[in-house]
User: Fold these one by one.
Assistant:
Number 1:
Amino acid sequence: MAVHSTASKRKRAPDKRDRILKAAIKVFAQNGFYATRVSEIAKAAGVADGTIYLYFKNKDDVLITIFEEGIGRLLTILREVAESDEPFENRVTSIIELQLGLLEEQRDLAEVITVNLRQSSRLLKQYAAPLFMQYIEVIAGVVREGQEAGAFRQDLNPRVVARSLFGAIDAILLTWALGEGDPPALRKAGTHCASLFLEGLRKR
Amino acid sequence: MAVHSTASKRKRAPDKRDRILKAAIKVFAQNGFYATRVSEIAKAAGVADGTIYLYFKNKDDVLITIFEEGIGRLLTILREVAESDEPFENRVTSIIELQLGLLEEQRDLAEVITVNLRQSSRLLKQYAAPLFMQYIEVIAGVVREGQEAGAFRQDLNPRVVARSLFGAIDAILLTWALGEGDPPALRKAGTHCASLFLEGLRKR
Amino acid sequence: MAVHSTASKRKRAPDKRDRILKAAIKVFAQNGFYATRVSEIAKAAGVADGTIYLYFKNKDDVLITIFEEGIGRLLTILREVAESDEPFENRVTSIIELQLGLLEEQRDLAEVITVNLRQSSRLLKQYAAPLFMQYIEVIAGVVREGQEAGAFRQDLNPRVVARSLFGAIDAILLTWALGEGDPPALRKAGTHCASLFLEGLRKR
Amino acid sequence: MAVHSTASKRKRAPDKRDRILKAAIKVFAQNGFYATRVSEIAKAAGVADGTIYLYFKNKDDVLITIFEEGIGRLLTILREVAESDEPFENRVTSIIELQLGLLEEQRDLAEVITVNLRQSSRLLKQYAAPLFMQYIEVIAGVVREGQEAGAFRQDLNPRVVARSLFGAIDAILLTWALGEGDPPALRKAGTHCASLFLEGLRKR
DNA sequence: CATGAATGAGTATTCATTCAT
DNA sequence: TATGAATGAATACTCATTCAT
């Protein structure tokens, strides 16, 4: 009764929170935040409605958590790429591929983030906007460094470039998500997009 | 009593529909579609709640109308530019400036369209997606023609370029809308964006 | 300009009130009082919505008027029959045939009265119940007189007989109205009903 | 702790559905279906508005359920009487007394059924009419058998007799319900009604 | 910790009624 | 008188949240 059962006794369901988040990402992606009922999340997660409130303050909090942890995860990886010592061109390409690649595996997360980033509920904007800006800032950082290092032309505002790049990737993902979306097509689109931006950025 | 005053003969205000649409654009931009109450639209339009239902089937119909007429207006102007006989570079620049310029004057419309295009309500997607695709197609057309005419490099998929361009503009507008957004800043961002894409597209 | 046009000048539409009432009877019979929109009455009468309020205080008033004038008309005829000097058996038969016959021609009025008599809106009950009671009372009067004259058995409460008779006719009409309802069938049902009641009433 | 108390183990009240139905019967009888607010039903049942929707699809569904279960209950008992091996006269008398007697104890149910049976909402008629016809048919069956067995005169259409009997009882109940309605008066009216019909039906 | 029945605040929509023309 | 566009009060129903078990 002792020893070997220790682990399984402590917090039997430390994964419930995760299951709820994963389920929420799925249904938010499918139906949007407002059209999603809390009971749908619960059902998708295989828990009771009330259980969700043991892990989250309310429905908003679920979305906010997805934002924070989701974008957070993206940011972490993004920063690694951005701060690597690869040539700047490679870093830009990696950023694009990474996002597309990562999101290809986490398509729902992408959908939730890009779709709901724009929901205009004051509360959500409050949380989402700064995270979005951080995201942009990391990309802008790479551009800026590239400019300083003489790899990129210097007459472009790094933030504008970063926003453009983000928007381009986002739009490609959106169209891909709206259509049938086969992975190879997405990858090829990424290559073209990278080429377009790198030529646009190249110092002459 | 003067020259027959045609204008003064109208019964009530025949512009109610317009007032409602304008008001809706304003409040949707401010609070988002879902968070906006029909009564708020009515109040902003200076009409009674019920009046809205004399002109629109329901709340959804108001948004759909904004989409259709708003994007429709954009499309018309866009097509003129796209089919002009200016050099291709100029057309691309015009497309960007035109959109940013037009929307600068109609910031709320921009917000509504870009923000809500992605809302996942099935109904709305049904209406919005085809319009969005048309939009992309017009831009892609210019790119394609430019490629065929030898003005642009030919190794890029025109649709991917179009999506990237759309996304870039969209993201710039979004950031601008999220921030304080002064018009000069937007204009300058547009110039940089244009330069970035034109260099990226240039045949070498 | 004078003489011959006098009549047509005075109150051009003294029939509007009638048209509205007739239209109301039709649509009330079809859809019931609550499910009928004032605009439907107006449309059926070929007048504008507002016109109804020139002749009636409100929607309730339209129904009340139908009750009063409709039952009033029935009562007048009924009283003539009830107070005739025919044999009592004939009077009872006439009452049945008259109602069925009259209503056959005014099926909608019948429907409105019998259906809506039972609507439980306080206001309507207030108006309808006394009229209903008068109606019953006229029939009861015939029974009572018949009893006093020795034509009918005297052990039955005249009011109970009157209610039973009214109810029987009402139910026959209702079933007839719910079904296909061809006039001959209704007439035959009336004959059977009369025979049933007359045998039941006969003094032995 | 005592003998296992089965009853006390139930979560909440499992009788909510019944309480809602009973409350609905009461308020429908009082105010009519259309004039009754859902919140009034809820208040009368001592539950929250939303609770009603846990047990019924909508307001219509509450009324339909009352019809079905109410008339259903009546039908069950009616059939027992109709198919008993009592003399036919007794069966007819029982049918009358049973209805009046049963309804005397369930005055509100009577009111709801008889009043609203005729409401012309298409939906309701759809549900109510067939039940009504079944009801008539059971009574007609007794008459028909009585005729075949030689107990009743054979020149009357059993269905017409059944409708007349139903209508008579209905009208008596209606008057009783509209007035103060003391039970003894109702019982006496029933006796008179039975006598009237039995004499009317008697073979001579 | 987990449940899910119950709650009741919140809102789109309808429609009787008004009134400027 | 007659019109019908405009009004806004009124209400069925939904769904996030709670809490007794």
Note: Residues 11-12, 37-39, 49-50, 52-53, 58-59 of chain B lie near DNA strand E (CB under 10 Å from a C1').
Number 2:
Amino acid sequence: MERYEKPSVTVDIVIFTIKDNDLKILLVKRGIEPFKNMWAIPGGFVRIEESLEEAAKRELEEETSVRADYLEQLYTFGEVNRDPRGRVITVAYFALIKSEKISKLKATADVIEAKWFSAFKLPKLAFDHEKILEYAIKRLRWKFEYTTVVFSLLPEKFSLTELQKIYEIIFDKKFDKRNFRKKILSLNIIEKTKERQKNVSNRPPQLYKFKKKIGEIVEII
Amino acid sequence: MERYEKPSVTVDIVIFTIKDNDLKILLVKRGIEPFKNMWAIPGGFVRIEESLEEAAKRELEEETSVRADYLEQLYTFGEVNRDPRGRVITVAYFALIKSEKISKLKATADVIEAKWFSAFKLPKLAFDHEKILEYAIKRLRWKFEYTTVVFSLLPEKFSLTELQKIYEIIFDKKFDKRNFRKKILSLNIIEKTKERQKNVSNRPPQLYKFKKKIGEIVEII
DNA sequence: CCAAAAGTGTTTGCTCTACACCCATGG
DNA sequence: CCATGGGTGTAGAGCAAACACTTTTGG
């Protein structure tokens, strides 16, 4: 059906989490050429019998042993010379994972080591992966500003302070507590539960839960 | 380098223009199976020595004989069974063209006919192309709301009424003339020229020109 | 002088920002 | 009773929406 040579297709997944009061990205150290021993975004070839999204989920689960709490396609990078091995088109995905769920990272075949890096202090990367990460961070901020993805990083019941902290980490700035709470409450997307947090050595915060569907478009901040 | 069978990769281009006071999309009638005689979004295989964007430009120029005034990647569709011929991943692009430039559409190989359809009255389409168009129209509206792409559809010098008309067509609703003008002028993205439009049988409008870079993010409406 | 589109301001309500103190709990 | 984070209101500025009449030109 096709008269031309085919390019190869890979998926790469930018996996974000919030850990130690910082925004983290999962990177892997390559065990094979090209770019052996350099850090890169995890990814791999798309198999003929799986969809792009299935491929992204598979790669992510191979690396972290858990399912993504949020996953969406980011962009497709298809410059002719982006991979020295030949023509490789990569479909980049963007994932969010709750850090509590992650126990241990696994080095898969071709990978020496997997590690969380601060999104604000990244090493030099293989291929055009710096461009991909730049794009991913922009998208991340857009998503948090205009949609409700944040709730995919929170437990079912959470305090308003936990919510605000995530925004402060991602936007790398402080928000006024009163204004933030007023704004969030006015959106009518969360509701009080009957519980308060236990085991805190100060006034126990009210816990809320999210009322809507994650990812929905709502201007948050 | 790869142990698996490769998928094929195509680009499909959703080409928009404003013509006859309506938002139009270019479709082609397929001359070959599968979906012979059905309407589809123009597209074709990505060649091994061209980037995705180059492929999109080539396909677009083959169809319309002109260069796009605006082009960006939309989304990559990669479900396993979206093409009955086998595994085909398509990278969809989104293009805007000034309608004055287009003289005649060309039917290329494999295509019986090319035709502009109203975006609000589309025929049944081949493959998953209805999903692609739905996605494209959403993106189009987003782009017009939050960026300055509109200027890629206007001549260098234009009146505020022409500008407003494009918004009314795309959002399929009327805007208040005074508020619209106030908003646009307050953005500080256009400036008066010394000219007024000629050959109109009424008060000749002031012509403006755009000061910035097309596509820049600015909340327009 | 008529038809057609251009051009122009004000009021009202809402939303965003800035800002500081008291409260509840555990140790 | 102290340390820690939780929880709350108000005033002022800026932005968005509603709304109608006069001006300029060609025919």
Note: The domain at 8-136 of chain B is CATH 3.90.79.10 (Nucleoside Triphosphate Pyrophosphohydrolase).
